Amino acid sequence: MDRYTAILEDLKRDPQSHGGPPDGILLCRLREQILRELGFRDIFKKVKDDENAKAISLFKEVVQLNDAIEDGGKRLENLVRGILAGNIFDLGSAQLAEVFARDGMSFLASCQSLVPRPWVIDDLDLFKLKWSQKSWKKAVIFVDNSGADIILGILPFTRELLKRGTQVVLAANDLPSINDVTYHELLEIISKLKDENGQLCGVDTSGLLIANSGNDLPVIDLTSVSQELSYLASDADLVILEGMGRGIETNLYAQLKCDSLKIGMVKHPEVAQFLGGRLYDCVFKYNEVLNG
């Protein structure tokens, strides 16, 4: 803590002193470097493992509840609500870490207690319309947290894309950061969820790829992803950035060359104030790229 404080004081005196100017990505990188130098490499490993095991036990039930919704638009909205509810498992938020330590978190209860729409940024109705009109060939999803976030939020949505014939690339962190899921952890999760036929609750997964993003932070600089992911994303026509760090704090206004979706829950008061929303408000920002 003393060393990080000293670095912050250095940056106040000279914004270029540690590779500045200071922004969210640089401040996160300096923090992670100090933690790793002090031996803190995966401090939430046990919590992540426990939450992954709980979420895996609920996966089939969540998928069945989604599949039971016959209306495509309503099913999509339910899947989106699942992503937002899962995204609340974030130990990078001091308030949520305290609640988690005291009471734990219920995924199904979180689905029911999301702040009411319209959210602070709410393009869900537009996305539902496009969902009914077009089919994406390849989607790249930058995933966020372990536990309910990836397993009960992102993976049911991924499964729905696979059902529609979309190839899906899930991009996960190379190294641990807070309770974000890593590439190797995601491989293990997928292997546990697949049945003996390699399916996710009856859906073929031959179009599902897991990629190492090359990232080691809770935020992401899209100009410095791994060569593997850069290659896999070269023909993507939909990119999804999930979570506050990747989808809101560092890439909310990023202009991509294909359709993009930024989705996450606002879990810091300062971010809520900046957006003009409420704490635990939701962001669902869809940008369509029109060819020609």
Radius of gyration: 19 Å
Distance between the termini: 52 Å
Oligomer class: single chain
* DSSP strand content: 5-15%
Structural class: alpha/beta
Tell the overall outline: globular
The helix count comes to 12
Portion in helices: 40-55%
- Text of the CATH class of the largest domain: Alpha Beta
Order of helices and strands: HHHHHHEHEHEHEEEHEHEHE
Q: Name the CATH superfamily assignment of the largest domain.
A: Uncharacterised protein PF01937, DUF89, domain 3
CATH topology of the largest domain: Rossmann fold
Q: What's the total count of β strands?
A: 9
| Overall tally of structural domains | 2
Labels describing this entry:
single chain, 292 residues, alpha/beta, AF1104-like, Rossmann fold, 2 domains, 7-stranded mixed β-sheet, two-stranded antiparallel ribbon, globular
Topology:
Layout (H helix, E strand, L loop, with lengths): L1 H12 L10 H14 L7 H23 L4 H15 L7 H10 L3 H6 L8 E2 L1 H10 L4 E5 L5 H16 L3 E6 L10 H11 L5 E2 L2 E2 L3 E5 L14 H6 L5 E5 L1 H6 L9 E7 L3 H7 L6 E6 L5
Parallel strand pairs: 1-9, 2-3, 2-7, 3-6, 7-8
Antiparallel strand pairs: 4-5, 8-9
Helix pairs in contact: 3-8, 4-7, 4-8
What does this structure look like?
By secondary structure, the chain is of the alpha/beta class. It has two domains: 2-37, AF1104-like, CATH 1.20.1700.10; 45-287, Uncharacterised protein PF01937, DUF89, domain 3 (Rossmann fold), CATH 3.40.50. It has helices at residues 2-13, 24-37, 45-67, 72-86, 94-103, 107-112, 124-133, 148-163, 183-193, 227-232, 244-249, 269-275; strands at residues 121-122, 138-142, 167-172, 199-200, 203-204, 208-212, 238-242, 259-265, 282-287. It has a seven-stranded mixed sheet with strand order 1-9-8-7-2-3-6. Strands 4-5 form a two-stranded antiparallel sheet. The protein is globular.
